[in-house]
């Protein structure tokens, strides 16, 4: 019925996913994704590019290619569960990223990819999470068909800051302190009063022994979020480290 999806193209599929006992756990009449971007389970990432538009395929996925060892809460998949997917390839089209798109579509793509990053992060796959967060940023920063309105501009800004904060968290989990610090600083260039980015930047500076800079950043974070116990703890730790008694 047509050519198979090429790298970078976007696909629309109808998906049903069932457990071995026949229980239906996943039903999506129109799932849209770009194979290779990590937005779906590996069974679909690997299987859909072998299909042609209009084709119906069945993929029996061992748990590493479905929802992994921990399973999933949404959809409700038990740990180490294999799944049978029935997939219909509905449409293949050029990927959205290079194309000018309406701001609302950019926001939808960015949110979808950030949520997928959160899914990977919760499962401990921090490299996959970071990849999804970067793809989210790419969607949010892509060309638009028209200038965003004030509300859309504000939402785009907030989404970028959330993604950059999430990038910093994933970089930290991967042991890349300099990259995490750079992500925090990028978030603060967009939103200088973002308390989450300020807190993490202060923590990272303290880890590097830059106590005076860290204290300034953390005090600013405390002014913005005075009830935050983590900020109080970090400032107390810095104060103890800088006190004369702690050095004797």
UniProtKB/TrEMBL annotation:
Q: What is its EC number?
A: 5.2.1.8
Reading the lineage from the top rank, the first entry is Eukaryota
Q: Where do the TPR repeats lie? A: 195-228
Keywords (alphabetical) are: Isomerase, Repeat, Rotamase, TPR repeat
Write down the SUPFAM superfamilies for this protein, in alphabetical order.
Answer: FKBP-like (SSF54534), TPR-like (SSF48452)
One of its GO biological process terms is:
negative regulation of apoptotic process
One short Pfam family name for this protein? FKBP_C
Enzyme class at the top of the EC tree: isomerase
What are the residue boundaries of the PPIase FKBP-type domain, all occurrences included? 8-93
Q: Which InterPro entries match?
A: FKBP4/5/8-like, PPIase_dom_sf, PPIase_FKBP_dom, TPR-like_helical_dom_sf, TPR_rpt
Gene Ontology cellular-component terms listed = cytosol; endomembrane system; membrane; mitochondrial envelope
Gene3D superfamilies reported for this sequence: 3.10.50.40, Tetratricopeptide repeat domain
**Catalyzed reaction equations:** [protein]-peptidylproline (omega=180) = [protein]-peptidylproline (omega=0)
GO terms, molecular function = peptidyl-prolyl cis-trans isomerase activity; protein folding chaperone
Protein name per its UniProtKB record: peptidylprolyl isomerase
**Which taxonomic lineage is given here?**
Eukaryota, Metazoa, Chordata, Craniata, Vertebrata
Q: Which gene encodes it?
A: Fkbp8_1
């Amino acid at each position: 019925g047509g050519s198979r999806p090429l790298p970078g193209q976007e696909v629309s599929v109808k998906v049903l996913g069932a457990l071995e006992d026949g229980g239906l756990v996943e039903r999506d009449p129109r799932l849209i994704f770009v194979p290779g971007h990590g937005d779906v389970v590996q069974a679909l990432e690997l299987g859909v590019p072998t299909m042609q538009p209009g084709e119906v395929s069945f993929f029996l996925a061992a748990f590493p290619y479905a929802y992994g060892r921990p399973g999933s809460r949404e959809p409700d998949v038990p740990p180490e569960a294999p799944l049978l997917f029935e997939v219909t390839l509905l449409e293949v089209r050029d990927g959205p990223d290079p194309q000018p798109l309406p701001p609302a579509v950019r926001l939808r793509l960015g949110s979808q990819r950030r949520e997928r990053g959160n899914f990977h992060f919760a499962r401990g796959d921090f490299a996959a999470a970071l990849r999804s967060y970067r793809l989210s940023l790419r969607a949010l920063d892509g060309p638009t068909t028209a200038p965003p309105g004030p509300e859309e501009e504000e939402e785009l800004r907030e989404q970028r800051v959330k993604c950059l904060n999430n990038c910093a968290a994933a970089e930290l989990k991967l042991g890349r302190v300099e990259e995490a610090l750079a992500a925090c600083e990028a978030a603060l260039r967009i939103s200088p009063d973002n308390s989450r980015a300020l807190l993490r930047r202060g923590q990272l500076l303290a880890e590097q022994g830059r106590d005076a800079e860290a204290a300034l950043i953390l005090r600013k974070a405390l002014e913005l979020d005075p009830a935050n116990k983590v900020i109080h703890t970090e400032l107390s730790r810095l104060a103890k480290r800088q006190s004369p008694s702690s050095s004797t």
